[in-house]
Every structure is written in C-alpha cells, then in structure tokens.
Amino acid sequence: MTRNAAITTVLPVYNRIDVTFDHGDGCWLFDTEGRRYLDFGTGIAVNSLGHAHPHLVRALQSQAARLWHVSNLYRIGEQERLADRLVANSFGETVFFGNSGAEAMELCIKMARRYQWQRGETGRNRIVTFEGCFHGRTMASISAAGGAKMVDGFAPLLDGFDRVPFGDHDAVRSAVTDRTAAIMIEPIQGEGGIRPVPPQCLEGLRELCDEHGLLLVFDEVQAGIGRTGKLFAYEHTSIAPDIMGLAKGLGGGFPIGAVVANAKGASGMLASTHGSTFGGNPLACAVGNAVLDVMLEDGFLESVAVKGSRMIANLRKIVANHPEVYHSIRGSGLLIGIRAEMPHIEVVTALREHGLLTVPAGDNVVRLLPPLTVKNEEIDHALDILDRVGKALSS
Ligand code: PLP
Question: Active-site residue 363, yes or no?
Fold first, then answer.
C-alpha cells in the first residue's frame, strides 16, 4: 500500500521538537542520545512529583498486579478512597473521575447547566468565560475559549458562552443576564500566560454568583494539586467555587481527571446523566492516592510555597540583569511564568539547548513548572542556565 508522504502515522497536530526521551529520574529527563535535561516543563504541569517517584511506581505496580479495570457499574475501592480524600481536603462534597482536563471541564459545563435545569430555570444555560482562557479541546471547551487557532474550521461551535475581557469587572457584570447559569474561570490562567486573577476579583465573582443564583466554576486543571503551594489555588482566597475541574498533577503522569463539587453544584447530576468507561479506574486512582500520600505529608505544600518564593525572588534579579531577553515574572508557588522581551520560542529553544526544559504559553510567556519535589540545588542549576541564556541572547 502506498502512503501519502505529506502525512505522518502520528496525526501532525503538534509541531514536535526532534527529541525523544528514554527515561526520567526525579527532575531529570534523559534522551535517546544520552543527553540529560532538567525538566521544568513536567509534561505541562503533569509530573507533579517528578519522574519515577518510588512511591508512585510501587502504587502503580502493585495495583497492576491486582486489578486494572472494572466498570463503574461496580464499586471501586481506590476510587472511593480518592474521592473521600479530595472531599476531606476541599470545599467539595462529591467527585466524578474522568481521564483528562478537557473531560473534567466538559462535565463542569454540563453540571452547571443541569443544576439550573433541575431547579426549573430551564432558560439559564449560558456560561460567562474569559478571554485567554483554556479549558481543553472538546467542542464545549473550544467553544468556551474561542481563539482562531482552536476553533477555525470546527463550526458549528457549541452555543452558550459569553466571553469577556480578562480583568474587566464591568464587562463581567454586564455579561450576566437572566440566561446566565455560571461563571467559569481559571484562578490562574495557564495556557494564557500564567496570568493570576487577584483574590479580591475571585471573591467578587463569588458575590456576583450568589447575588444572581449562578454557580462559580474554577478550572484548576493546571493550577490545582499543590502547584501554587496550596492543594488548590482557590485556597489563596477567602471563598470557594461550587464546582472545580482537576487533572494534570493529580495522576503525577498517569491520566486522570476529576470534578469536585458541593452538593448544590452537583444537585442536577442524577443516575444516568453522565458516565465514563475508563474514568476512575483502579490504576489511575491508585496513583492518584499515592500522589496525595506525598502531597498531604506534613510540610510538603509549605515547602512548595517556600521554594516558589525563593525561586521567584531570584528570577526577578535575573530578569533585571537581562532586560533585552526577559521582561517580568508572574505566578505563584511553582507555577511561574517569565514574560519574555524577545520572542518566547527563541528563549525556550535556547534554554533547551542549554539543558533546561520549559513550556511556552500565551502572552509571550515561558513557563517554569518544575516537579514539586525539586531541590534547591536543582532550582539554582535552572537559574544558572536562565542567567547564561540571558547573557547569550543579549549579546
Ligand atoms: N484546563 C486547563 C486550565 C488546562 O491547562 C488544560 C490543559 O492544558 C486543560 C483544561 C485541558 O486538559 P487536557 O489536555 O488534559 O484535556
């Protein structure tokens, strides 16, 4: 059979870099050519405890030897334990497990609509979202976010999203009508360029939701699970959402997503209204529980906050020394963005060539997302590379 040379066997939706990794150990990745890289990309905020963490490896191996999959038609012990622990450590009262961030956000949207429908508000099905947001690649998620690259050619999009400019309080207020069901927001925009929403703004959204009978939905797929130095980003505020999407760091590299909701938020989701064949399977939940074992240890999250503050303070000095390359720093804990002065892809490439992996984001930002287990020596090594690259690209 002849093949079309223009198409690769892997669908070419990614502009891939010509590096293949062979194995990982803690903060380090080793490629098939024997080069090693300090991994401050962590598969885009996924390998929350680094590579080959012994506790996670043991949890996965021991679960793999016992039971891989059973249907959600039956009780799943590891799933119930993980749900109990997420509930015990959050505002939530109930959890649904899926396999990815987009799936989690899809359910957040369904849950918000269904809540209004269930209480007789059948015309309230619109959701206010924010420019620069990213909620995944399903039809609902791309419709919520907009953005030409994501939506061109995929029409008809899902109706029911009212997007407002990021940080524009008046626009949010005027977007709320008697057709609005919910406001959905990332407490820190990830793909949009590590753009934190100030706590008082999130608190203002809570008030607005309460005033108008709306649900508040947080997308913590990237910012949640310890990354900001708290288990959840909303804990930096005095409020909580009604519904929260999680994924990425929860599995430390094993695919899992989750929606955590309070009883009100979940009240429309009755038997048979949603489901997933693989969601919450024993393997994913065994690893999720192992991730929580580590993150809930005394002092772990505090150590993330301390390492993050130290790193941000040192990064500020490096940025000030190389103003032609770096513009500014933003973020929280170990969710850090450097806004670049020159094209950010050139900075990401130079850093990689010097052995440091980072991830580009919107708004010309270079993301630094080290494993939460990163040691200060490893942070210093990364800072040294950032300084050297700053020098090299300035000259
Ligand atoms: N929501 C946020 C905030 C994200 O950062 C992402 C992924 O980057 C998603 C949702 C989608 O997650 P996934 O790629 O697992 O579907």
Answer: no
